[in-house]
Write a structure and sequence with these properties.
Blueprint (H helix, E strand, L loop, with lengths): L1 H15 L4 H39 L5 H4 L12 E10 L4 E2 L2 E2 L4 E5 L2 E5 L2 E10 L9 E4 L4 E5 L1 E6 L1 H10 L24 E7 L2 E2 L6 E2 L3 H9 L4 E7 L2 E7 L6 E2 L7 E4 L15 H4 L2 E4 L12 E5 L14 E8 L4 E5 L2 E4 L2 E2 L14 H7 L6 H11 L3 E5 L4 E5 L9 H4 L2 E2 L3 E8 L6
Parallel strand pairs: 1-15
Antiparallel strand pairs: 1-6, 2-3, 4-5, 6-10, 7-8, 9-13, 11-12, 13-14, 16-17, 17-26, 18-19, 18-26, 19-24, 20-21, 20-23, 21-22, 24-25
Helix pairs in contact: 4-5
Protein name: Signal peptidase I
Family: Belongs to the peptidase S26 family.
EC number: 3.4.21.89
Amino acid sequence: MEDNQYEDDQKKLQSSIGESPSKGDKNEDVNKEAFPRRWIYIGGIACIVILSFLLYYSENGMWSKTEKERIPIPNENEDVLKLEMGLIEIGTNPFREGYFVEKPIVRNNGMSSYFHPTVLRYDIGLSNIWREPLGSIRGYDPEEQTYENGVSVHIEPHKEFVDLMDDVLGFNLFTEPNSFQGHPVISTINGNLYTLSYQVGSEFENGDTPIVPAVKDMDLLLDHATEVDIVVTIQEKEIGRFYLGEEMHQVYRVSEEDRLEVLYTYDNMVRGNNEYVSEVRGEIIVNQSYDKRTLQRGDVIFYQTPQMENTNQSDVPSNSLGRIVGLPGEEVSIKDGVVYIDEEQLDRPYNKALIQGMNKETYLEKKIDDHTSSEKEEILNYFDQGMEAVEVPPNTFFILSDQWWDSFDSRVFGPLPVDEIEGKVMGYKEGIEH
């Protein structure tokens, strides 16, 4: 009986403190079961978030260059290109066969003067779905996983324009071998701008004076210069065609407000023909609104002369003319009086030191006896100048005067920042002789 009373007392005690052996065991089992289930829920939600994140960036192309390079060739009729700009320009300065082929010829029109060109140039701006410059796109080879055969841009004139060229020039400008037809594509600073230049005038055999069409005929050519298709191909497959006459375009002329007329007397551009001497040619015409992104090697610019510490610049004007020789990313050097770009000899008529238009061999043969011994030594030093390689940083150009061996240019002050450029030299006004 005492045992029964003891068991009853124990049950009452456990009940008073909230303990129940069977109930406690049950709660412990429930807690053990709930613990892993909660973490399964949390892990599942985390996986969903991560997968959603990866899917979003995969679809939006936010991956490495390796992923970008696996872009396939566009399907037929797929809209992959857009013509952003078509600039038709006259009078740029391309070179052929080692000599200068364009000497701008200026004519008067009422109160204004402007030059008469010998070159027709198209600057074509294209955007594309590849999110990278067209110049780096290649046709995709699935077996090699490489890209071959780069993009090509060319111009196809309409029949009316072809007929006009036959009447005015006697040939189709766009099929002549002396034209730079943009194959392969020439890509400038902004990556999607391509330049195609076509020589309108022809030279005499000595290369001094171009023969150009009559003024009225040149005006006709310029007025019809938009009657062309801009054709873009990849692996010889057409992926874009734009009629310039209906697309966004601009026919290039220098307006009164954009034109700066400069009386230039500094002799840093003299190479024997006085191309940039105002006393002979007339005032220099500078286009101040020219798009600096389209400047390229060979262009003559008007710029603010950088000020150098501990350098005598008393005979150097505050603004100078110079020619663009080195582009951003290139290395410019001079060895034995010859200009080199990335260790390759520059194929331009201004790449070698000249005196009175003569190279070292010719001058030594014809003129050296006219000088004293000290003068002869100085002349030989002119012809044999050198310069260590200089890398051209972004947003700068390496500028040389045409008479660079005796001038104040990038050899002294380094690559010229784009912001220091006032404009592009387009020609000159009527002068004393032409």
